[in-house]
Amino acid sequence: MRKIVSLLFVCASVLSFSQTVKSKVLKLKYTTPEGWTASEFGGLKNWDESGNAMCRCSGVAFSKPHKNGKFNVVVYAVPSGGLDSAKREFVGSLHFVNVEKIEKMTNKGFSFERRRSNFYDVKTKTKSFNCIRYISKPTEGHCYIIYVWQENMDLLNSTSEKELTEMVNGIEPL
User: Fold this and answer.
1) Which of 38, 62, 86, 152 has an alpha carbon within 20 to 30 A of 18's alpha carbon?
2) CA 61 to CA 16: how far, in whole Å?
């Protein structure tokens, strides 16, 4: 009996470290680093047919608890021609405040345009969390918009940004 309990504990520990998921619906493969959880939302065939409180679209939300405020990464799948859709400029009531300065970057799966800014909470009408928005270059007629932030009103520091970037680097196209 002790061996079975020990084996179950080891299996649970291994699964909690990282998990790779292939999402055929979103055409993504993602590996969650230790401590991160993932939750997909939206339609099974049409990326614009349904969603959740974050967006009436399809995507995946990642989160990780942290003593200074939870880490969040939200990925929206965007059909061709959908980049100018206003609904993907929001994460729930948080609206991304656009900026002109664009940084180009790549990781093993994508080429991105990256913009650093903040959210504006349309419910409270106040400036909210600092965030980074990534927009991938189109692949096979679709692309992805990724928002990363920490639920903390201070600027993103290098340690926080490193943890968030680690999660973004775990996302690849299928």
Assistant:
1) 152
2) 17
Residue 164 DSSP code: H
Question: In what helix (H) or strand (E) does residue 172 lie, and over which residues does it extend?
Answer: strand 171-173
Q: What pTM does this model have?
A: 0.85
Q: Alpha carbon of 157 to those of 28, 68, 106: distances in Å?
A: 28, 11, 21
Query: ∠ CA 27-120-94 to the nearest 5 degrees?
Result: 35
Q: Which of 141, 169, 147, 111 is nearest to 27 (CA)?
A: 141
End-to-end CA distance of the chain: 42
Give the C-alpha separation, 162 to 148, whole Å: 11
What digits encode the pLDDT tens for the residues 141-160? 788 999 999 999 888 888 89
CATH dotted code for 17-173:
3.40.1000.10
Whether the predicted pLDDT of 17 surpasses 70: no
Distance between CA atoms of 79 and 24, rounded to whole angstroms? Answer: 14
Return the domain boundaries, the chain.
Answer: 17-173
> Looking at residues 32-61, what average pLDDT do you find?
86
Nearest to 148 by CA among 123, 173, 171: 171
pLDDT at position 11: 39
